[in-house]
Amino acid sequence: MKIASRNFALPFGLAGALLSALLPGAAGAADAYPSRPLTIVVGYSAGGATDILTRLVAQGLSKELGQSVIVENKAGANSNIGAEYVARSKTDGYTLYVGTIANTINRALYKNLSYDFVKDFKPIGMMAMISNVLVVNSKSPIKSVAQYIDYAKAHPGKLTCASSGVGSSIHMSCELFKIRTGTDILHVPYRGSGPAKADLIGGQVDSMFDNLPSSLSHIKSGELRALATTTAKRTEALPDVPTFAEAGVKDFVVHSWFGLAAPSGTPDEIVHTLNTALNKVLQSTSIKQAYEKNGFSAPEQPNSSTQFSDFIQSEIATWADVVKKSNIKVQ
Which domains does the chain have, with CATH numbers? Predict the structure, then answer.
């Protein structure tokens, strides 16, 4: 018995779809990154320096990438909650994280972190740096860094230094200052820089190594007196305020910094796309003006993923040494 042979012809549209699915790169061409909105996670509450900066950059990234860029705040545990969330996210480039100096400090400070800032993240690029500034109440008799040191040495353990919390850059600036100057200053942690600054203005604490954008308006209004900035060069926002090097404290440079990172395993081509877009944003006139107004400094160009990675490693080494020498314990 003969079995009749049959020719099956697929409809043209279906045949084309199957061919596209089989051809390498065809799906990628149809779904070029990014094809939907991105989310940038900030490990702090809204209104702080990290949040303000991220929203400025997100607006620029949205224009460069042609997609909405949403800023999501996941505050808590000195930014560890937000970092862990992103570290466990998909590696498709749609969930990103704003890493800060706190993440490099936390690596040494916390013994049981559920993520590794080096292994679980792929750096994209630096977003900005800011100076910290040593401020006292404008009614304080202390008018210079030299007087601050003299008072601390004459009253060991009595001079108070407020911070936004244990392990923050504000706290660690104070600890590094103590190491460099051989002083005994009492650290007073708060739940955020806002309440710390309120008590400094109110006279309940003596000093604070605050993030510059946070204190800038209070310095200009005369409520706080700036003694020195923690950067290597004077900041444009406070051109009349000396650096600590100029004030006689050597080897004391602290930059609070902010950078964009993706979960480890994110494809290199996506990281390159994001790095290119970020650098275009940073060179735009609107961002330069916003940075100047808020006391941020743009990173030097070129600003590559590799350079940001090297910087992170150097920061980890610096703060691990400070944590060890300060014998800081986290409850």
Answer: 37-130+256-326 (3.40.190.150), 131-229 (3.40.190.10)
Q: Are 75 and 44 in contact (CB under 8 A)?
A: yes
Per run of 10 residues, the mean pLDDT along the chain (length 331 residues) is 44 47 47 94 85 94 98 90 97 97 92 94 97 96 98 97 89 94 95 88 97 90 97 91 96 93 98 98 95 88 95 94 85 59
Name the pTM for this structure. 0.80
